[in-house]
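Would you kindly consider the sequence and fold I have copied below?
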Amino acid sequence: MDDEFCARYVINQNDKFMVVLPPTRTVTDGEFYIIPIEHTSDSTQLDSETLTRIHNLFRNLITYLGKSNKSVICVETYHDSTKRTHMIIDCFIFEKSEVSDLKIYFKKALSESDVEWSNHKKLLVFKGSKFYEKVNA
């Protein structure tokens, strides 16, 4: 990664992951990415220390944003590992009042989608549970 990219787009970086602003136009204000340093196609392949640090980042973001009546929604979309070997978690910041509506729209869009989700319509809800225990179950 070149220095100009880092100076312009990388918000924070440690030895396990980096927080990056999108280099292209975004869907919403406040959109950013969490990208592990380790090359892997999805989060189930990450080591436990990286997962723990990303989980801690999520908790810290929720606490920090909650003070200004905002929340964050993070989405990891799996891509064919032969075409894209590096996972990205897309994060979107919203007003807390919008989050419950967004959950409804998201569930509705998944249930109405035809091609991509036709064989994979299982929606996992992770509130109050450990994400990776459910995904690997």
